[in-house]
Amino acid sequence: MTDALLTVERVTKNFRGLRAVAEVSLTVPEGRVVALVGPNGAGKTTLFNLIAGVFPPDAGHIQLAGRRLNGLRPDQVCAAGIGRTFQMVRPFLDLSVEDNVLVGALLRSRHTATARQRARVVLEPLGLAPLANRTARSLTLLERKRLELARALATEPRLLLLDEVLAGLRPGELQPLLDLLQRFNRDAGLTILLVEHVMRAVMALSDQVVVLDHGEKIADGAPHDVIADPRVIECYLGTEQPTAPTRS
Amino acid sequence: MSTTPLRPHGWLLAAILLGLLLAAPRFLDPYQLSVLTLALWFAYVGQAWNLMMGFAGQLSLGHALYVGLGGYAAAALYVHFGVGPWFGMLLAVAVAAVVGAVIGALGFRFGVRGVYFALLTIAFAEFTRIAFDHWDWLGGSGGLFLPVVHEASNDLWTLRGEPALYYYVMLAMTVLALLLVSVLLRSRLGYYWLAVREDQDAAAAAGVNVFRTKLSAVVLSGAMTAPGGVIFAFMHNNLFPEEIFSMARSIEIIIPPIVGGLGTLFGPIVGAFILTPFGEAVSLALDQAGLSLPGLKQFLYGLALMVIIIWMPHGIWPWLARRLGLFGRPGHGGGGEKAP
Questions:
Q1: In this complex, do A90 and B204 lie within 8 Å of one another by their Cβ atoms?
Q2: Which CATH superfamily, name and number, covers A1-37+44-82+192-241?
């Protein structure tokens, strides 16, 4: 077993009495891909935002390689080594593709010349190099998703948080992006925690699947074990004996 | 952006224009020179405001505050202690920077964004105006007057002399401001400003310290504006809180950069050089036509603004630069500018 890169320990978050995340614990081992799944409103995005520093947890601990992340701002979490993407992509629309990525690269190198070189290196494998001088506004959704990924990668993260990076893409567009993520994980050893609705992607990509329902963790394990888990099937599809009145 | 440098003929055009501006006092009468000096003043202060709004995306509707503070700081040193304007400028810059830091820290620490932050900037300008109205040491509402010294020669050191002196000082300041902002835009801070302007949450996720980035923009913008106030004080030899801190002045400051091209390096300059002479020309034309309807000038000025903004929503400069093909690639501004 490899060492845990990210450790989430009994983390809880309430919103005005609504328990969005309840004592969830999980670990992301170094070099692995972990998927966070669950029905809508299960608390996936909340947990994601707790890790990214968007808001602090009410209770519990979040650690990256032994370093405590609780209470850090998003930029400090990023500096600590966590890169993230947004569910609804948020490129800097009026900046060029290269400058979008440059902003991320400036985290590790203060000089714009070195950061720009770094940005170009990041753009290449994502197929964005030919678009480097276009404004982000002119990109398609798929290109914007890749740009979002590039900006996060430019911050040289140890852990990449992907919030439904495949959502909204046409089936034909999924595979290239999936291949790309797989390459980053296998070749560059990048650790990934992803929130994902596309089960095909989850099964293909992840080493481990964590299932949330109503803010609680109900399953955690290898992808094939998890989808066979009765509790998981129940939370997605309901119980086997329907209690609802039968249709006439 | 450094990826879209000015083309050679763009540099040539800039050099010719600068040459014309340098030679202008030889050809212009005192009135025309005063109009040009005023245009430079608005170009300079507009550049300072544009740094904050155009590049860092933080709206200030109270920039008269920094003009007034700068003017009063230098004037008070001169009137009460006999300290010259250039030392006064140091104090002016320091005071404006500190006040900018206070406003920025208050606003950004408590998450005051957008128009609500703009309201905060208005509030500061307004209560400063009221405070200065009652500050007798600085003349109160009766105004602070700088002793007028008639000297035979121009004295740059004491900022006393002919209109041409102020003209050249404003020209130098405008060029320096342009250079300073263009250097800043190529720095890490400059890119962080643009990122925060575009999307501050996304910027934070990419490792940008949003608070510090926004604060630096307010502090630098305020500090840059203050010398404009110093020149104003020494050029006009009087300061009235009602006038220098007025809301009308704050609005007057922001119109040239908006019309010229928000978030562009040359927008504030182009805007000021079109609007200032235009305003004067309208006055002159109305005088000569014998029309003295109150508010007619403002009406025509407003009409012209509407036409420009509807016709060129990104401002005159991006349109002009595209027309003249001044930048390497179409669809790109220069110097980290917003693409049209």
A1: no
A2: P-loop containing nucleotide triphosphate hydrolases (3.40.50.300)
